[in-house]
């Protein structure tokens, strides 16, 4: 797929046409042929967190899907160097002049409806492209108008931005929601705050403190809503008086009103002196939860990882193995972040020490291998070895100091014995944790996933070290979600994409999003208000989904009230796309055969 010329030797940049989280997109001219292309630029400088996972997935999946006319074509992958001397990766795509979001907006601004035949053509092409993806085992997972490219003259539509796409297999893979991580998540994050700082880690530290004493999680919710309710039951439901601004957080709703309890009711064996060491604990009763009032870590103070022996020294180390085989989704972002952040933090005694890196390679057509090696060779004190494992697959090993246990297992051992962890041990572990967190924060790093499992320990010395920094400084963007995902389903398949297709269908008609919630709960309520609150009769098993709760009871409305300008056949197709029960939701292939498309000229589609 790649050629020997660099990107700038082969292409002339004409103008920037877009910019996203992981790079810029340029309209460019192929110097050899004069053809207009799109260059998607991704910076791979060593100070960044590595090759973005969206880019890695796009390369892998587009190599498989690019032969379909309704999936954007990846023409080449090239390496280049920018004016600052930093390495960049260019994905070379066919050029499409607009996208469906802009196309819809142009009609909205003109005060006109998109002609029914145009809607029909675009929907047929979308169904055809989605059917091709599903037939090849790919879920897009982020279908929205902005990710659907278009040619204004021919009205050709192509699916793009497959960075969030995932391969699926039958039987279905389980997609977890990382429930354990919720137990240590700060309330401002649960309530949708977009600006937060070191205080989020200190909430996690507090939860760990309580768990050290009680040997069980203090707030063990199995969904974001349940997590909040657990917190409110103990600490009281917050209000503007004790937490100014709480009602303005985007996921704030009217919650049951609980009065705060004494923390000693949940942590009964923690004596008063211990509580004063963790003074933030007593302040929790007053719900001083804004990040400005939460105590910092300085105040209380006045994974497929296996042990291995280093052949040269006999020293026991931990090898964390990551496969980089071309059929996988690329280098996991957690690994890329760990390498970057641990190089900066490893000199602190309470952060796990990254001692080296080993890469075993099988060369293939992508530049990915070369860039990964370049990043690794620049890591201080890292040794790189090249080779192939017994299966001929590329793997990356992170070499860590070996710690024999973690805090989760340590707590469990006391729980199984029916004993309390000695107060002086609790105190020592909390001090080490605060010290390690203080070092991270002083160097501008938020861990964001502090929990007992991520805190390694030496049983003999009781030394504690912070590990698993893969989520540090990470963030995600909201995507369109269907009701089974919003309600916590962990087994789902192609139906999730078809829900998105239905939402896009409606937006093509109305020129505005059908369900425009700004949080998961609001999104569900928007859906329920229109389609009715689901029950066991219309969606068997819905009440067993892990995030199901008692919701207001709405009766279903006619879809035509929200999408008034759609034909009878169109409304029928849309209703089949927006079926609650995933198994009843129409497939992309079946949608293409729907009578709505009968009078469409499919000759050139």
From TrEMBL:
Residues 11-597 form the Protein kinase domain. PROSITE patterns: PROTEIN_KINASE_ATP (PS00107), PROTEIN_KINASE_DOM (PS50011), PROTEIN_KINASE_ST (PS00108). It comes from the Eukaryota. It holds the Pfam family Pkinase. Residues 294-310 have a biased composition (Basic and acidic residues). ATP binds at residue 40. GO terms for molecular function: ATP binding; cyclin binding; cyclin-dependent protein serine/threonine kinase activity; RNA polymerase II CTD heptapeptide repeat kinase activity. It catalyses: L-seryl-[protein] + ATP = O-phospho-L-seryl-[protein] + ADP + H(+); L-threonyl-[protein] + ATP = O-phospho-L-threonyl-[protein] + ADP + H(+); [DNA-directed RNA polymerase] + ATP = phospho-[DNA-directed RNA polymerase] + ADP + H(+). InterPro entries: CDK, Kinase-like_dom_sf, Prot_kinase_dom, Protein_kinase_ATP_BS, Ser/Thr_kinase_AS. GO terms for cellular component: cyclin-dependent protein kinase holoenzyme complex; cytoplasm; nucleus. Keywords: ATP-binding, Cell cycle, Cell division, Kinase, Mitosis, Nucleotide-binding, Phosphoprotein, Serine/threonine-protein kinase, Transferase. Residues 288-310 are annotated as: Disordered. Plays a key role in the control of the eukaryotic cell cycle. Belongs to the protein kinase superfamily. CMGC Ser/Thr protein kinase family. CDC2/CDKX subfamily. PANTHER family: CELL DIVISION PROTEIN KINASE, CYCLIN-DEPENDENT KINASE B2-2. This is Protein kinase domain-containing protein. It comes from Cynara cardunculus var. scolymus (Globe artichoke).
């Amino acid at each position: 797929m790649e050629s020997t010329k660099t990107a700038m030797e082969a292409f002339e940049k004409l103008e920037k046409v877009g910019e996203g989280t992981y790079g810029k997109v340029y309209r460019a001219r192929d110097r050899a042929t004069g053809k207009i292309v799109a260059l998607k630029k991704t910076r791979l400088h060593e100070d960044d967190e590595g090759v973005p996972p969206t880019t890695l997935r796009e390369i892998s999946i587009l190599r498989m899907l690019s032969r379909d006319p309704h999936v954007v074509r990846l023409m080449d992958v090239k390496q280049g160097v920018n004016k600052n001397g930093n390495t960049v990766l260019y994905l070379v795509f066919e050029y499409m002049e607009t996208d469906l979001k802009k196309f819809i907006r142009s009609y909205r601004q003109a005060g006109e409806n998109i002609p029914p035949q145009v809607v029909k053509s675009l929907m047929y092409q979308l169904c055809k492209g989605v059917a091709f993806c599903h037939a090849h085992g790919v879920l897009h997972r982020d279908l929205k108008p902005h990710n659907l490219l278009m040619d204004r003259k021919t009205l050709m539509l192509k699916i793009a931005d497959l960075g969030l796409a995932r391969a699926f297999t039958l039987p279905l893979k389980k997609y977890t929601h990382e429930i354990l991580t919720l137990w240590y998540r700060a309330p401002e994050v649960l309530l949708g705050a977009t600006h937060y700082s070191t205080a989020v880690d200190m909430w996690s530290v507090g939860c760990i403190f309580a768990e050290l004493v009680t040997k069980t999680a203090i707030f063990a919710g199995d969904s974001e809503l349940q997590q909040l309710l657990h917190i409110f039951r103990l600490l009281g439901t917050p209000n503007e008086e004790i937490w100014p601004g709480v009602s303005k957080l985007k996921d704030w709703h009217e919650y049951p009103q609980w009065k705060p309890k004494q923390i000693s009711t949940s942590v009964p064996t923690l004596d008063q002196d211990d509580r004063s060491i963790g003074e933030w604990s007593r302040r929790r009763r007053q719900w001083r939860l804004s990040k400005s009032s939460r105590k910092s870590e300085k105040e209380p103070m006045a994974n497929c990882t296996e042990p291995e022996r280093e052949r040269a020294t006999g020293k026991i180390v931990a090898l964390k193995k990551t496969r980089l085989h071309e059929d996988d989704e690329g280098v996991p972002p957690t690994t890329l972040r760990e390498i970057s952040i641990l190089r900066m933090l490893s000199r602190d005694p309470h952060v796990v020490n990254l001692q080296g890196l080993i890469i075993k390679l099988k060369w293939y057509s992508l530049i990915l291998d070369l860039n990964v090696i370049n990043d690794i060779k620049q890591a201080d004190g890292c040794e790189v070895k090249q080779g192939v494992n017994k299966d001929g697959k590329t793997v990356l090993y992170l070499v860590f100091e070996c710690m024999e246990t973690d805090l989760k297992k340590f707590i469990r051992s006391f729980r199984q014995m029916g004993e309390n962890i000695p107060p002086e041990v609790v105190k020592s572990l909390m001090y080490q944790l605060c010290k390690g967190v203080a070092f991270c924060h002083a160097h501008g790093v938020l861990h964001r996933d502090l929990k007992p499992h991520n805190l390694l320990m030496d049983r003999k010395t009781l030394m504690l070290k912070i590990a698993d920094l893969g989520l540090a400084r990470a963030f995600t963007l909201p995507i369109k979600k269907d009701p089974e995902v919003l309600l916590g389903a962990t087994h789902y398949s192609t139906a999730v994409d078809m829900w998105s297709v239905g939402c896009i269908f409606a937006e093509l008609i109305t020129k505005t999003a059908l369900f425009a919630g700004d949080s998961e709960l609001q999104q569900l309520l928007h859906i329920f208000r229109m389609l009715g609150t689901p029950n066991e009769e219309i969606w068997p098993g819905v009440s067993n989904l892990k995030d199901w709760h008692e919701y207001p009871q709405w009766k279903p409305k006619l879809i035509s009230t929200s999408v008034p300008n759609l034909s009878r056949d169109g409304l029928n197709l849309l209703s089949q796309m927006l079926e609650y029960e995933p198994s009843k939701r129409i497939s992309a292939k079946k949608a293409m055969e729907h009578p709505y498309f009968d009078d469409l000229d499919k000759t050139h589609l």
